[in-house]
């Protein structure tokens, strides 16, 4: 089989790989790119897949808007209420005080995925040297060669085929959709329990159907997964309290193991790792995909600028130096986001008294020191620039 040569090979057709391909082609439609995608060709085969609610920041919305990839089914967050179960300290963040249209948006993973596929197909129509190949694990891809390889294979904690730096929080997230009696529209709740954060987030189904992300030890999470609906709702009510009335219904319960796995080096010669292929984070601060989209955007900027130059500029040395430049530009945002997420995942689950008091004080400081609140919110909405 004769090899087909591309400038760029993107491995992984999840949200980050798709977004990276779309931004590269939007900036340079003549780009020679192959995208390898393990997902089925037909959108209908993905429509029943991962319905987990993902919090996307306003910064991610601005980025996705540039390629017309913002899903229509989305719930906006106007207020976030943060508290800890059974302890002092709480904070309320509102869009008014942070002068934003919304503090974030909740969208199902599959809707982000499908909207990005649609956006990339539209861009593909004007991209003569773009090949989107759907593969299964056994497909021979030996006929594809590329000057630069972008790894966007993603993956969840403990499901990735590499382990580097990080931490096992010995927690699982139980996610699902809950129906409640009386929720205020556009409000998100994050409650820190002794086992981990419990988040109740808006959904596009209406104010009383909410996305649940309940983090706990792997064994209690397994037990909760196996409970009858009635017993599950009773135990959720006991942990969350009565702020939004009775929990009435639960559906689509799923478990995810949680941890931090990240690469210290995100480039090697002509290869680069982005999104979850570079770092898998705890969802406590809802940062994984937001960070991955920023990876994809910046990398697309650097690659399209290099590969739109005449052929004799695309040397191995130029590619390696472009990737190093990319890694350098991502350093501050990556380490701030990984560090903040790791800190929150650890501090908010410890039962050591000084830490319990410390986080109560931290929440009070957030409430009473607006500059601290604004700085934290900005980091979470736009990353470190
Ligand atoms: C419970 C939970 C809640 C979360 N909540 C949030 C949140 O609120 N906000 C947020 O920003 N993030 C959140 N995240 C993180 C978010 O899901 C990930 O950061 C995001 O999915 C990463 O996207 P990705 O494209 O890098 O990887 P993935 O979503 O894993 O996609 C990778 C794709 O590549 C494909 N693939 C794998 N190997 C290959 C290969 N060799 N060749 C071709 N294709 C391949 C896979 O089939 C997959 O489709 C959460 C995660 C969890 C577990």
Describe the fold and architecture.
The protein is of the alpha/beta class and 385 residues long. The chain has a single domain (4-163, 261-382), classed as FAD/NAD(P)-binding domain (3-Layer(bba) Sandwich), CATH 3.50.50. It is 36% helix and 29% strand. The protein contains 9 helices and 17 strands. The protein has helices at 15-27, 58-65, 109-124, 218-226, 229-240, 288-307, 316-347, 353-368, 370-382, and strands spanning 4-11, 33-37, 53-56, 75-77, 79-84, 90-94, 104-108, 130-134, 144-151, 165-180, 187-193, 196-202, 209-216, 247-262, 267-268, 271-273, 279-280. It has an 8-stranded mixed β-sheet. A 6-stranded mixed β-sheet has the order 8-2-1-9-16-15, covered by helices on one side. A 3-stranded antiparallel β-sheet has the order 3-7-4. A hairpin with a 2-residue loop joins strand 11 (187-193) and strand 12. Helix 1 packs parallel to helix 3 (109-124) and helix 8 (353-368) crosses helix 9. The relative contact order is 0.18. Flavin-adenine dinucleotide binds next to helix 1, strand 2, strand 3, strand 10 and helix 6.
Summarize the structure.
The chain has helices at residues 15-27, 58-65, 109-124, 218-226, 229-240, 288-307, 316-347, 353-368, 370-382, and strands spanning 4-11, 33-37, 53-56, 75-77, 79-84, 90-94, 104-108, 130-134, 144-151, 165-180, 187-193, 196-202, 209-216, 247-262, 267-268, 271-273, 279-280.
What descriptors fit this protein?
alpha/beta; FAD/NAD(P)-binding domain; 17 strands; eight-stranded mixed sheet; six-stranded mixed sheet; binds flavin-adenine dinucleotide
């Amino acid at each position: 089989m004769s090899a087909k040569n591309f400038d760029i090979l993107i491995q992984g057709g999840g949200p980050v790989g798709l977004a990276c391909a779309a931004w590269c082609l939007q900036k340079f439609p003549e780009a020679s790119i192959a995208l390898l995608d393990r997902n089925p060709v037909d959108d209908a085969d993905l429509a029943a897949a991962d319905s987990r609610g993902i919090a996307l920041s306003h910064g991610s919305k601005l980025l996705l808007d540039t390629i017309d990839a913002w899903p229509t089914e989305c719930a906006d967050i106007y207020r976030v209420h943060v508290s800890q179960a059974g302890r002092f300290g709480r904070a309320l963040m509102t869009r008014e005080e942070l002068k934003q249209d919304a503090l974030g948006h909740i969208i199902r993973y599959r809707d982000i995925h499908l909207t990005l596929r649609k956006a990339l197909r539209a861009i593909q129509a004007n991209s003569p040297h773009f090949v989107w190949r759907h593969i299964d694990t056994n497909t021979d891809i030996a006929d594809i060669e590329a000057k630069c390889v972008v790894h966007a294979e993603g993956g969840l904690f403990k499901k990735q085929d590499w382990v580097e730096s990080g931490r096992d929080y010995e927690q699982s997230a139980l996610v699902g959709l809950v129906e409640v009696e009386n929720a205020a529209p556009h409000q998100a709740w994050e409650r820190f329990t002794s086992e981990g954060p419990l988040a109740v987030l808006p959904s596009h189904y209406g104010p009383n159907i909410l996305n649940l992300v309940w983090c706990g030890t792997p064994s209690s999470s397994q037990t909760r997964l196996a409970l009858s609906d009635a017993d599950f709702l009773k135990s959720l009510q006991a942990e969350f309290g009565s702020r939004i009335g009775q929990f009435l219904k639960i559906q689509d319960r799923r478990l995810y193991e949680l941890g931090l796995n990240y690469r210290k080096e995100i480039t090697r010669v002509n290869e680069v790792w982005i999104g979850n292929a570079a770092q898998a984070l705890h969802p406590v601060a809802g940062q994984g995909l937001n960070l991955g989209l920023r990876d994809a955007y910046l990398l697309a900027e650097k690659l399209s600028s290099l590969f739109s130059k005449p052929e004799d500029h695309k040397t191995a040395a130029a590619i390696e130096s472009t990737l190093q430049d990319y890694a350098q530009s991502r350093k501050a945002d990556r380490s701030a986001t990984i560090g903040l997420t790791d800190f929150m995942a650890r501090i908010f689950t410890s039962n050591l008294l000084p830490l319990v008091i410390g986080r109560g004080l931290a929440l009070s400081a957030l409430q009473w020191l607006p500059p601290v609140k604004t700085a934290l919110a900005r980091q979470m909405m736009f990353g470190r620039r």
